[in-house]
Amino acid sequence: xxxxxxxxxxxxxxxxxxxxxxxxxxxxxxxxxxxxxxxxxxxxxxxxxxxxxxxxxxxxxxxxxxxxxxxxxxxxxxxxxxxxxxxxxxxxxxxxxxxxxxxxxxxx
Length: 108
Fold this sequence. Notes:
The chain contains 5 helices and no strands. With 108 residues, the chain is an all-alpha fold. The protein starts with a helix and ends with a helix.
């Protein structure tokens, strides 16, 4: 789980424009939000490695997953509106978010 979040967080810095496209337009400072969420993914992912920080990091990931859920909904809606061939994957990702929250809860 740690590696998943460290990798995902690093990708926010490698391909930030891709992540910015899924941030709903009503969110201010969208690019800054991409970097902030990526930073927290790296921090919390790293925190899962250590016993002393594992519980706090798991809680942080739960809160982060809840906070970014609107971006996943926005992405699914945009893909549907554009008739994108991977619309199904964006809708499949929505319930996956709850599984990720549960997985983080197991570390809490």
